Task: structure prediction
Amino acid sequence: MKNENLDKKFYLVREDVLPEAMKKTLDVKEMLERGKAESIWDAVQQVDLSRSAYYKYKDTVFPFSTIQKENIISLFFYLEDRSGTLSKLLGVVAASGCNVLTIHQTIPLQGRANMTLSLNTSGIITGIDELLFELRKLEFVEKVEVLGSGA
Result:
């Protein structure tokens, strides 16, 4: 499982070439955000999308306007418990030009800890893909996931 996402990249794709399920997933997310549906079940029924398709795409497809205007990203880490781990990880983040807003870390159990970082990416030098690549290369990082972005 270690470094399973090293090769993940992000792309900007025109709407007319997206599969219908991805378009409908975006519709569901908008309905939920605007309060036009009371639940995911209600929203997927309204746009004629299966719940499994919604869950497949919900964390992987975003409107460009959302990504463009957001400067905050939240990352989830699964880390080995070693001395200096946090310091090294934060060094990579600082070198990228990001500013740390919050750090939440669990108490290590069985040599592993979960951590969530919220970052201000407005000053990023390298780009999100490059930052994620560098973080996943760290020998003590077993997993890095983008939880979301928002202001």
Summary: The first helix runs from residue 20 to 34. The longest strand covers residues 72-80. The two ends are 31 Å apart (CA to CA). The chain has two domains: 15-61, 68-149.
